Amino acid sequence: MTSYIHGEIETPVGPLPRIATKWTHLDRWGALKTRWSVGRMKYRVRPGIYAVGNPDRDSRVFVTGNFKLSFDHLRRNLEGLNCWILVIDTKGINVWCAAGKGSFGTKEVVRRIRIHHLAQLVDQRKLILPQLSAPGVSAHEVRKMTGFTVVYGPVLARDIRAFLDAGLKASDEMRQVNFPLFERLKLIPVDIFYGKQYMLIVPLVFLALSGLNPQGYSFDLALNSGWKPVVNLFSGYLAGCALTPALLPWIPFRRFSIKGVVTGWFVAVPLLLAGTLGISLMEKVSWFLMMGGLSSFMAMNFTGSTTFTSLSGVQKEMKTALPAQIAMASLGLAGWIITRFIFI
């Protein structure tokens, strides 16, 4: 039996699993691995209805997606309550992203109400959905097709108790979506491992190319100086996917792609002083282009994790930013390779 399921409860629609509200060490370990993008897309719970405490026909019904971290945060904040959780199939995606992609949508909510016979389980006709699911769910359509009224709860699960005590009314603070430093830092590991398949391949390629010189190829040169381009690459990569999110509100410019160029060049300056960008002007400029393009691309990936952007804005930015990033990286790479045959 799954660690968070503690027995069953008999209901008019058959036995349903009863879940614990406290996290176990397995839940914490799973959350940690997910934060580091280990098995993230497989971290799911089975869609269906779950009991918290000893709910009855008049108990509240909370709706969430089947990304386990979303499910875990909800159940942990329902401790001491008697209620139901309706888990819909969001393909293992969190509530906010699923609402934007359409997997946390009206059709799926209606479908789950019907196939799990929710109307036979409860007499009251209110569903409490997370506020961040609102872009994907049409409340009036749900009511029209099922008879259930949708009530949007607070942004954060930790405010659920206060929301219930206030008679299902959320304060302005509960409705506000904030994205402070700590929340941004929690998302950085996922972005760091976004390109994990390239984090070994690309540096190895640059390590090998470091052996190029006017006389042909030197393994000794590759071993002795190959660490420099590796350091430059990782610095540009981390500037985009770690430094940019951390400093997001304080970096000038609205576009994430430009923010990434700023942090990429910011990191390149101390490397320039340290001598890892090379000796000739052409080599230094080449690395500024490559690091700026790489950092810009990685920074733009963070647009899907932040409240600072809109879907239309991201699509518009990508049309102009991607060609510029490719051009910067390509020109920088070409310039750097040329310098291997001229200035060494």
Query: Largest sheet at a glance?
Result: 7 strands, mixed
Helix proportion: 40-55%
Strand order, sheet with most strands: 1-2-3-5-4-6-7
Number of E-state strands: 9
Give a brief description.
This protein is of the alpha/beta class and 344 residues long. The chain is 53% helix and 10% strand.
Secondary structure: elements and pairs:
Layout: E1 5-9, E2 16-19, H1 25-35, E3 48-52, E4 60-64, H2 68-76, E5 83-87, H3 95-101, H4 106-115, H5 118-121, E6 126-129, H6 139-146, E7 149-152, H7 160-165, H8 172-175, H9 181-192, H10 198-209, E8 212-213, E9 216-217, H11 219-225, H12 227-246, H13 256-274, H14 281-301, H15 311-342
Parallel strand pairs: 2-3, 4-5, 4-6, 6-7
Antiparallel strand pairs: 1-2, 3-5, 8-9
Helix pairs in contact: 4-6, 9-12, 10-12, 12-13, 12-14, 13-14, 14-15
